[in-house]
Amino acid sequence: MDIGPELDQDYQGDFMTSHLSVRETQPPTSVKVTAASHRFSAISLGVALLMGSASTVLAADPSTAPYYGFQGTAGKTLATSTPWWPAPTPQGTAPAAKPPVSHAAPPGAPNIIVVLADDLGYSDLGSYGSEIPTPSLDKLAQNGLRFRNYTTHSLCSPTLAALLTGVNGHSAGVGFIADTNPGYPGYAGQIQHNVVTLAEVLRDNGYSTIATGKWHLTQTANRVKEGPYDSWPLQRGFDQYYGFLDGETHPQHPHVLYEGNTRVTLDKYSRNFQTSDLWTTKAIDYIKTAKRKDPKKPFLLYLADNAVHAPLNPRADLLKKVKGQYAAGWDAVRAARFQKQKDLGLIPANTQLPPRNPGVVEWNSLPDTDKQLFARYQEAYAAYVSTLDRNFPMGLSTPASFLSASDRGQASRQCPTAHHPYHGPI
Length: 426
Description:
Elements: E1 2-3, E2 22-23, E3 32-33, H1 41-59, E4 112-117, H2 135-142, H3 156-165, H4 169-172, H5 198-204, E5 208-214, E6 240-244, E7 258-259, E8 262-263, H6 275-293, E9 299-304, H7 316-321, H8 330-344, H9 368-390, E10 401-406
Parallel strand pairs: 1-3, 4-9, 4-10, 5-6, 5-9
Antiparallel strand pairs: 1-2, 6-7, 7-8
């Protein structure tokens, strides 16, 4: 398992990475950590080595083979393949008991916080060229490592599965959006049971494990209060969970929330309610509770925010701050971000701005009504990015190693027309 792209010598590191790339090699017989700082080893040792050593041990076990137990056939085409489904776990089946913890955490094991944004573009943070104020994440970037050759799956669920397991999304069983199961192991719609998760490894090594926000690693049919629960967060290594199991929800009025395996019942949401605020508040509460029980026990926090996934409904005060900022249009913003990326050293100084993406027209060719509409779209998006930054859990007094990443680039569905504004220059 090779973690991180090759880092150029001009990159100085501390304990943080804004973007992490996980590339799988088969078989996973060794662990290579590419980093520019010994303090980055807090993540390297706390995540990569624990995950890597577990993967190395399990690689010799035939039950970890990708098609272990599969009774269908997998040919080179769909026509030559035969699907097969294992017997489903009946709804109402009680969740399995958590396995006992095998080891205490090693001395000096770091607290680890992983914050994953949803549909955030490469150039949407100030430290990556954006005009959007993101002071919390920018501060972390200034004191840490920025990765510029970051790659993910093109869809959210496979990226979530890869990040949580250290293997390719297909190998984890989530090669596509985790909504359906067409009967093949690479597309099971949930992390396969012969693949270990980061939370399972760290919990077994003495960590408190906490998750809040978006899960989206459970098939649609199993996202009901009756279960089955075998693919839910608590059954995949987390001690605490608060969030939603689906791929998206409304930031002011989430359709359904779960705490652990129990559906949350709420009569109404408070004024100015935002799900991003809720995920951070719950995460900090869980961490404080865990530290009160055992101050020396390290924790893993996995906060998967639904910001900046559609629908884009930021708070009115944040929206007001960016009013009129995008009247110049996407061509001007794109050029400005491109130049800032050069100034930051993210791209070589001799790089040429590529042509617009197919379907994106010149801003000045648009009628005024479209200009007003698309500028308003970007105002809403920028305000939502500010929401994400405002909720980055920097207020914790407990030292921790932070990892910030995005599950994929910005999504075209956030602009429901043939145009695709503000996609970013990379």
